[in-house]
């Protein structure tokens, strides 16, 4: 009797394990499918269900982090990638994605440490090499950044993202003509791509070529979807360019629309405040400067807004 009971129990356990394993694989498959479709919230639900059954699969934590990062939830993305690294300390992918998050947060020393662990001599990982080039550029290590871009272009001379990276480095070097040449190649490589158009326009602004910049920003707006970040950035940037050519009404209209699209962009509030100061709208300017400071403009871009606030809004308290 005991033997029969034990055999039945064993059969039940084996059946349960088989069902559990099958269920996990379906959850994983469904989660990845939802992620690839851009349905990140649904993907997270599937990954969380998987984790309730088995929290030891590092690949699920990687995907969960990617989904949360796409949802701009930095806390959960960080938690997920930290967990993946804990489960598999030699996991290059975990360090790579965490490095991208650090770079996004402007923690470039931490970012570079993680990205170097992810690359570890393997220059075939294009995504992490591109990120390292961007980190090095922001840290002022321009020759090293250019070297990473050239390494990528050695294998594909029309690699679009590497072209953008190289143009950006040349711009940081003050070599605007060479930067423009690279941007031109990138735009021909991927006709109508708004990122290259927006970036070329920003460089044209630095050369005080505002009319040409406005043309590029307008094309970037035309070729980007309303929900894309670059759409809001292009409106904000075009507004500032309009301000530089004294088209104040159009400038204010563009930047206000950009803020509607991306209400947490501190730089847009800074730009609108500058126009409001120029048009003697003191109350509106102070409100926008206050908002920019609340959104940590100073942390990201320096003390410019603090100085404007002290100069034009003396009766108010800096947040």
Structure description:
This protein is mainly α. It is 79% helix and 0% strand. The chain is built from 18 helices and no strands. Helix 3 runs antiparallel to helix 4, helix 11 runs antiparallel to helix 12 and helix 12 packs antiparallel against helix 13. The N and C termini lie far apart (77 Å). The relative contact order is 0.04.
- Overall geometry comes to globular
Helicity level: over 70%
Rg calc: 25 Å
Strand content: under 5%
Mean pLDDT: 90
The poorly predicted ranges are 1-19
Summing up helix and strand content along with how strands pair, one would put the structural category as: mainly alpha
Say how many strands there are.
Answer: 0
Structure annotation, total helices: 18
- Please provide the ordered H/E string of secondary-structure elements: HHHHHHHHHHHHHHHHHH
End-to-end CA span: 77 Å
Chain oligomer state = single chain
Largest sheet: none
State the gist of this model.
This protein has 319 residues and is mainly α. Helix content is 79%, strand content 0%.
Q: What's the topology here?
A:
Blueprint: H1 2-36, H2 40-53, H3 58-70, H4 74-87, H5 92-104, H6 108-119, H7 126-138, H8 142-155, H9 160-172, H10 176-189, H11 194-206, H12 210-223, H13 229-244, H14 248-261, H15 266-278, H16 282-294, H17 297-301, H18 304-312
Helix pairs in contact: 1-2, 2-3, 3-4, 3-5, 4-5, 5-6, 6-7, 7-8, 7-9, 8-9, 9-10, 10-11, 11-12, 11-13, 12-13, 13-14, 13-15, 14-15, 15-16, 16-18
Give structural attributes.
mainly alpha; 18 helices; 79% helix; disordered N terminus; 319 residues
């Amino acid at each position: 009797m005991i033997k029969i009971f034990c055999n039945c129990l064993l059969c039940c356990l084996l059946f349960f394990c088989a069902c559990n394993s099958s269920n996990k694989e379906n959850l994983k498959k469904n989660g990845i499918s939802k992620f690839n479709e851009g349905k990140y919230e649904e993907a997270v639900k599937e990954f969380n269900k998987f984790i309730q059954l088995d929290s030891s699969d590092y690949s699920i934590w990687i995907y969960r982090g990617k989904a949360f990062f796409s949802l701009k939830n930095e806390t959960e993305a960080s938690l997920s990638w930290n967990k993946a690294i804990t489960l598999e300390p030699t996991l290059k992918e975990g360090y790579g994605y965490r490095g991208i998050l650090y770079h996004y947060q402007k923690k470039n020393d931490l970012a570079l440490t993680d990205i170097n662990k992810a690359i570890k001599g393997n220059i075939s990982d294009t995504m992490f090499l591109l990120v390292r080039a961007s980190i090095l550029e922001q840290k002022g290590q321009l020759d090293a950044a250019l070297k990473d871009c050239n390494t990528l272009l050695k294998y594909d001379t029309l690699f679009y993202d590497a072209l953008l990276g190289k143009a950006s480095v040349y711009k940081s070097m003050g070599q605007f003509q060479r930067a423009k040449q690279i941007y031109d190649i990138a735009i021909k490589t991927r006709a109508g791509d708004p990122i290259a158009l927006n970036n070329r326009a920003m460089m044209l602004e630095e050369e005080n070529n505002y009319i040409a910049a406005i043309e590029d920003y307008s094309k970037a707006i035309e070729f980007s979807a309303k929900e894309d970040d670059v759409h809001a950035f292009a409106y904000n940037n075009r507004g500032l360019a309009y301000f530089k050519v004294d088209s104040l009404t159009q400038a204010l209209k563009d930047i206000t629309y950009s803020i509607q699209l991306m209400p947490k962009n501190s730089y847009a509030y800074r730009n609108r405040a500058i126009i409001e100061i120029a048009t003697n709208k003191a109350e509106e300017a102070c409100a926008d400067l206050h908002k920019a400071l609340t959104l940590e403009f100073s942390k990201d871009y320096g003390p410019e807004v603090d100085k404007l606030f002290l100069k034009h809004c003396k009766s108010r308290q800096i947040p």
